[in-house]
Amino acid sequence: MLNTRNNSKFGMSRKKKIIIITTVTMAVIIAAWFKLGKNNNESTEHLATFVAQKGHLTISVLESGTIKAREQIILKNEVEGRSSIITLIPEGTHVKKGDLLVELDTSTLNDAKIDQEIRVQNAEAAFINTTEDLAVMKNQTQSDIDKAELTLEFAKQDLKQYKEGQYPNQLAAAKNDITLAKEELTRAQETLQWSEKLFREKYISQTELQADQLTLSRSTVKVEVAQNDLKLLETFTHGRQIAQLESNFHQAEMAMERAMRKAKADIVQVEAELKAKDAEFVRQKTKLAKLNAQLSKAKIYAPVDGMVIYATSARAGGSFRGGSQQPLEEGQEVFERQELIYLPTTDSTMAEVAIHESSLEKVHVGLPAIITIDALPGKKFLGRLAVIAPLPDARSIWMNPNLNVYNSKIYLDETNPELRTGMSCKTEIIIEQHDDAVSVPVQAVMRVKGEPTVYVMQDQQITPRKVEIGLDNNRMIRIISGLKEGEVVMLTPPLKSGTIESLSENRRASSTLENTSAMKQRINERIQKANGSKQGGKNLPAIGQTDQLQKNNRPAEVPAGKERYPIQQQVRGKDSSDTSSQNIEKMKQNIQTMSTDERGKMRQQQSQNANTADYGKNSKKPGKK
Question: What percent of the residues of the chain are helix, what percent strand, and what percent coil, each to the nearest 5?
């Protein structure tokens, strides 16, 4: 409970302090405001200014790079996985075609080759066994089919034999038995009649008469049996026999079909196994051939004559790409597809540079460039921008996601034996050159309502003025029209609080108006190129182009989020009177009513801004990272 009260008291005291501080601050601001009206006649000489100058101006882009051979053969490690270097030719050695350059460790590959040879032999044996099994299976299935066909044929013949032979014979025999039995019965009746007469006349004995009577009874029974046999044959035996034989025939047909289907299935199964064994055999042989190829690639020979250059040394100049890789040496572990050795095939050289994305709007293929070599002080080489990568370098993005650079190639016009691959260099890509151009520092220009504006100081008055600008070199910006030599401009233009609009948004609004002029210029350039009026037949910008041509060629838009110069923002006030004389007068009054300490701090800040304008001493080189 006590802690709660203490916290409550602390909170109340803190609120009181805030209220007191706010009240005092407001009082100071009100006092400064009243003081503003009393000191509106003070001088503005303490403001940082710059006198517009007229003279030689070069618009260029500076980038660091590396000297490389323009045409070269890149030898890579083609052994899969990782392997160690056993033998490595010294760097700088002049080799002939066929000389051994690099030998990699193959102990693991040799062990794998022995194991693979065993697998190949096993696969071959399995393939041969399956081939013989297929031949045996075909023979066995043909035998089963022949047997089933023979059984079917016998069943068919048995049915036909019974219908056309056995049954008619049995039927005839049964009828014949009836006929014979009836004849025997008739004879027995006649014999018995004579025997009775003879017995009455006492010619035969009683026994003989009884024998004849027994014969008659026996003949009667024979007739009945023969008749019953015929009826049984026609009614039961014939139908059952026919059904049995037809069933045997159908069973033989189904057995024949089963035999054929089973034979086909067995053959297909064995053939599938044979294909699998064959594929396995081929796969194992392919793996063995691949291992042999890998063993052959473990030794790298020179495909042409040339001087050996290690890939790590050639990339060492590109600090953002090669700094983390160890120099190539014996015993080092290398991975698959790693570049090992460069063999230049010609004496022509080039400079490989990385152009920042903020400079892409300025440069294009064909521009001239001046190359200076760190190892050759005092020497300069002329070249031309030949290649600009269509996409940013992935390695630089991986190392720094906020850095987008485009790998480019500058071809040197001359060859020099002193130029060696891997040398660090600085390249200056010349975009424009003007012998008589008005220029001011880039921080003196801002955009107000989409228009480039400078604040000119005349007679202690600050006046906004719209100007037409050209390109800049990250230090100075060319003024095409609207400003004359000797006029004084402010380095820190007055800005009123408001919303901020980037330069790219303002340029986007005016790009449509420039499309027509740009199209005409492109047509003129193509006509000139077709007529061969370009310098050297190449698409190079002429020195001392007209103002209108440079206006049409300047970029219409700056990439969003990338600053070309510090003042590339526009302040849009709550009303449309940002540049009116009333606001300028009010700004002067605010400055004049400041205290001595506040003015001192402001002069110190303006002095720093003035030092920034001294571009010949302390300005940062463009393109230098």
Answer: 50, 25, 30
pTM of structure? 0.47
- Specify the pairing of strand 100-104 against strand 306-307: unpaired
Average pLDDT, the chain: 75
For residue 68, the Cα-to-chain-centroid distance in whole angstroms is: 28
Residue 468 near residue 593 (C-beta atoms within 8 A): no
pLDDT of residue 56 exceeding 70: yes
Token pair 């042999």: residue: 292
For residue 170, give every residue at least 6 positions away whose Cβ sits within 8 Å of its Cβ, in sequence order, or none.
233, 237, 238
Q: What's the CA angle centered on 385, arms 383 and 389, to 5 degrees?
A: 145
Q: How confident is the model at residue 510 (pLDDT cuts 50, 70, 90)?
A: very low
- How far apart are the C-alpha atoms of 289 and 297, rounded to whole Å? 12
- Asked if residues 420 and 72 have their Cβ atoms less than 8 Å apart, the reply is no
Q: Is the dihedral of CA 14, 15, 20, 24 positive or negative?
A: positive
* 169, 176, 230, 338, 561 from 233: Cα distances, Å: 11, 13, 5, 98, 113
Contact present, 362 and 550 (Cβ < 8 Å): no
Q: Which residues neighbour 317 within 8 Å (Cβ) at sequence distance 6 or greater?
A: 65, 66, 67, 422, 423, 424, 425
CB-CB contact of 219 with 185 (8 Å): yes
**Opening angle at CA 181, ends 175 and 184, nearest 5:** 145
- Centre a 10 Å sphere on the Cβ of residue 501 and count the other Cβ atoms it contains: 16
Mean pLDDT of 332-359: 88
Question: What integer pLDDT is reported at residue 235 of this predicted model?
Answer: 86
pLDDT of residue 571: 33
The mean pLDDT value for 483-491 works out to 88
Q: How many CB atoms lie within 10 A of CB 46?
A: 14
Query: If residue 145 lies in a helix (H) or strand (E), which one and from where to where?
Result: helix 107-161
- Both structure tokens of 139: 């023979």
Kindly write down the DSSP assignment for every residue of 287-327, as one continuous string.
HHHHHHHHHHHTEEE-SSSEE-EEHHHHTTT-HHHHTTSPP
List, in order, residues 6 or more apart from 180 with CB less than 8 Å away. Answer: 226
Q: What is the pLDDT of residues 168-215, one digit of tens each?
A: 888 888 888 888 888 888 888 888 888 888 888 888 888 888 888 898
Distance between start and end Cα atoms, the chain: 61
